[in-house]
Design goal:
Elements: H1 16-25, H2 32-40, E1 44-47, H3 51-57, E2 64-65, H4 71-75, E3 92-95, H5 101-111, E4 118-119, H6 123-129
Helix pairs in contact: 1-5
């Protein structure tokens, strides 16, 4: 016998649209040209897309690949699995394919204390549409 299917949202739960909107209120999102300029000033662009998506669509030169499933461990300055360059005032910009998952990821980095974390509005797709370099 299987458990009954819950057809209404449990009290206190939030939908993805609400989570995304809340995350974005905390971010100073950057467009493709602003992201490119920030990278030239030393900001770190982190591409969280899976390998298959990068292979299909391309990559941004200079972006560091940290897939979404390990992002917090690699960039949390407290983590034993952190990358050597991470620190609390890191100027980090997260990108995904279209700029949705990256907003949630950037908000999670802010929760870890990386208060300058933000994302690339429109993601890789916007970067490419702006005519910026890709591999």
């Amino acid at each position: 016998m299987s458990a009954p299917v819950l057809r209404t949202a449990p009290p206190g739960s939030r939908g993805i649209d609400d989570l995304l909107a809340t995350a974005r209120t905390r971010l100073d999102r950057l467009g493709p040209l602003e992201t490119h300029q920030a990278m030239q000033r030393g900001a770190v662009l982190v591409d969280i897309r899976p390998a298959a998506q990068r292979a299909e669509h391309g990559e941004i030169p200079g972006a560091i690949v940290i897939e979404r499933n390990v992002l917090e461990w690699r960039l949390d300055p407290r983590s034993d699995a952190r990358l050597s360059f991470t620190h609390y005032d890191l100027d980090v910009i997260v990108t995904c394919q279209e700029g949705y998952t990256s907003s949630l990821a950037a908000a999670a980095l802010q929760d870890l204390g990386l208060l300058r974390a933000t994302d690339l509005e429109g993601g890789f797709k916007a970067w490419q549409a702006a005519g910026l370099p890709t591999l």
